[in-house]
Design brief:
The protein is mainly beta. Helix content is about 5%, strand content about 35%. The strands form seven sheets. Strands 2, 3, 4, 5 and 6 form a five-stranded antiparallel beta sheet that branches. The chain has a four-stranded antiparallel beta sheet with strand order 1-27-26-25, with no helix packed on it. A four-stranded antiparallel beta sheet has the order 7-8-9-10, with no helix packed on it. A hairpin with an 8-residue loop joins strand 2 (about 55) and strand 3. The chain is globular and about 55 Å long.
């Protein structure tokens, strides 16, 4: 039965990718004559009382539910702005005990629903286990209860020992191609002591791209950029990254945005166009933002589209390109923020396709994540426990 199920999933995945490739192109707004106005929207509290919330997403089904991930191990469902009485899943006993400390970069860090979740019930968790290793595990929803996962169904498909307790990355997300992308930090400590950012023979300091539609573990997509390269590991999609804290694919264009947390002075946002074949080098630790850090050689370096100094914050939190309908003035704007200062920026391309950015809000939040619902409306999380939605401003 398991073999039949996996074979069915593989068939569905191939069909999904072929369908995506054959869809006719439609005109999508990618540039704007001017930036968005902060007067066009407001933040509305949707739910509160979470324990160190780190992420919000949706399952891609017709339920319109939101799923809020807590660093301490639980995932909660929000349905019609109401939290379910029991968690969707609780993996508290699997994760690093440091997640309960005042500050930690370990714990439950990522959640991604399979593109065919509505038919196969599969989703994936990213966490640091009790030994500090980075793990991706595959789970199934309960066969008779859509609001509760089968906690016994977990199967570890990826594990990597971490040399330090920080810079674990941890974000996972399916790309438009149906493959799973995974952010791994440079291993931790400070200044990249392992030289991981520029070492393609380490998985650390990279975005990985893997095929999870296999019977066990994962496979390497046949078009990964370093497949067959003896100087690199085949899982690597892009590299030269310090500690990406959330990346996102524009749901209409497929472009990828990565927020990379800086070291001493500069926070940055990196961009990869949808037609990229992968292999980009974003520069760490030769570069920090657009500035030389350690120096040396960073071949094929791609500079960030935006940076800000530590005068404005200290830890960038990646966001989402707005593609919803409720706030037209935010269309095609990439919204992101800073964990330390609570600032929220909007980045966009002008009519000449040059990147621009404006500070839109200066909040008192510890911004741990952005996310979106199935309709494309955007949410932001305050690490102290509250989920907010971007809503149209009151008249």
């Amino acid at each position: 039965m398991a073999t039949l199920r996996i074979a069915t999933l593989i068939f569905i995945a191939i069909a999904f990718r072929l369908t995506q490739a054959q869809e006719p192109e439609t005109e999508v707004l990618i540039s704007r004559a001017a930036g968005p106005s902060a007067a066009a929207f407001q933040l509305t509290a949707v739910a509160a009382g979470f324990d160190r919330p780190l992420y919000v997403t949706h399952a891609g089904d017709e339920s319109n539910r939101l799923f809020v991930l807590e660093q301490t191990g639980k995932v909660w469902i929000i349905d019609d702005d109401e939290r379910a009485p029991v968690p969707f899943i609780d993996v508290s006993d699997l994760i690093s005990p440091s997640a309960d400390r005042p500050y930690s970069e370990q714990g439950l860090l990522g959640l991604a629903f399979h593109p065919e979740y509505e038919s196969n019930g599969l989703f994936f968790l990213s966490y640091t286990d009790r030994g500090g290793s980075s793990v991706i595990a595959r789970y199934e929803v309960s066969s008779d209860e859509p609001d509760v996962a089968d906690a016994e169904s977990g199967e570890i498909i990826f594990r990597l020992a971490q040399p330090y307790a920080n810079h674990n990355g941890g974000h996972i997300e399916f790309g438009p191609d149906g493959y799973l992308y995974f952010a791994l930090g440079d291993g931790g400590a400070a200044n990249d002591p392992l030289g991981a950012g520029q070492n393609r023979q380490l998985l650390l300091g990279s975005i990985l791209r893997i095929d999870v539609d296999v019977e066990s573990g994962y496979a390497i997509p046949p078009d990964n950029p370093f497949l067959g390269d003896p100087a690199a590991l085949a899982e690597i999609w892009s590299y030269g990254l310090r500690n990406v804290w959330r990346f996102n694919f524009d749901r209409l264009t497929g472009d990828m945005y990565m927020a990379d947390v800086g070291q001493n002075q500069w926070e940055e946002v990196n961009f990869q166009p949808a037609n990229s074949a992968g292999g980009e080098n974003y520069g760490w630790n030769v570069w920090e933002g657009k500035h030389i850090f350690a120096g040396g050689n960073a071949p094929n370096h791609v500079p960030p589209i935006f940076e800000y100094s530590h005068a404005l914050g200290c830890s960038v939190t990646g966001g989402v390109v707005y593609r919803g309908a409720a706030i037209p003035d935010l269309e095609a704007v990439y919204l992101f923020g800073d964990y330390c200062s609570g600032r929220i920026w909007g980045a966009w391309r002008d009519d000449a396709l040059n990147w621009r950015a404006d500070e839109l809000l200066n909040t008192n939040m510890a911004i741990s994540s952005f996310g979106e619902d199935k309709a494309g409306e955007i949410y932001v999380i305050d690490y102290s426990g509250t989920l907010y939605r971007f809503d149209p401003a009151d008249d």
